[in-house]
């Protein structure tokens, strides 16, 4: 009544130093039996590409699942789920590692809800399929290769979220980041209360609007330092700072070296 393929890995301590490691991968479709109630020791992303069903965590009401969607199985949290008739198609990847903390803080492992609707599941399913190919191929570097792809899976799932950047907030901030205006002015231009802007940006990026804008400005400044011969003062103005001395102090504090040293290393 259903088809399945799965494979599990046992990465060693050195592999876990990569930040994320793949512990298992699989593909199932059809009238799958009810899973659980059970509790996992690691994170699992279950990407439902076709069909519908339900998902529930301990103490919570069942949540309807309509493809495309991702189920986030969290370690230590009891859960159970199943597809409705006539079944569904899923790809899953088990993973763990110290980078999970950062991905969680940055909002890449859902937004606190166990089920995240997706605009498309294709990129994430394709990446998980590549993990399966690596496992089937018997590469001597299977733990390293699959680890690298787990990062891609999490990024693909983040891009595919239905509620990703509602209203184009991040896009607007990025577009106007180098204008010499305050965060409050950014909020006014977006038609949002300042508190709402702060909440949205932190949920989407894990940082404040000020830090998000600063990162874009510094990235642009680095491109100009490495790719042009513009004076530092001119670059400071281009990225939104009228005071080149302040820009230099800020650049050095955030990057660990002054703009002139950064440029010298790129041209050296």
Structure notes:
This protein is an alpha+beta fold and 268 residues long. It folds into two domains: 2-160, Regulatory protein AraC (Jelly Rolls, Sandwich); 166-267, Homeodomain-like (Arc Repressor Mutant, subunit A, Orthogonal Bundle), CATH 1.10.10. 45% of the residues lie in helices and 23% in strands. It has helices at 13-16, 99-105, 122-137, 142-160, 169-176, 183-190, 194-205, 209-227, 232-238, 244-255, 259-267; strands spanning 2-8, 21-30, 35-38, 43-50, 52-57, 63-66, 69-73, 79-83, 88-96, 115-117. The strands form two sheets. It has a six-stranded antiparallel β-sheet, with helices on one face. Strand 5 and strand 6 (63-66) form a beta hairpin. Helix 9 packs across helix 10 (244-255). The longest helix is centred in the middle third of the chain and has 19 residues, at 142-160. The protein is globular. The N and C termini lie far apart (64 Å).
Taken in chain order, the helices and strands follow as EHEEEEEEEEHEHHHHHHHHH
Tell me how many strands there are: 10
Largest sheet: 6 strands, antiparallel
Assign a percent range to the helix content: 40-55%
CATH topology of the largest domain: Jelly Rolls
Overall mean pLDDT score? 93
Runs in which pLDDT lies below 50 for 5 or more consecutive residues are none
- Count of all domains: 2
Our count of helices gives 11
What's the CATH superfamily of the largest domain, by name?
Regulatory protein AraC
The order of strands across the largest sheet is: 1-2-9-4-7-10
Radius of gyration: 22 Å
- Level-2 CATH architecture of the largest domain: Sandwich
What is the overall silhouette?
Answer: globular
- Beta fraction: 15-25%
* Structural class by helix and strand composition: alpha+beta
Distance between the termini: 64 Å
CATH C-level class of the largest domain: Mainly Beta
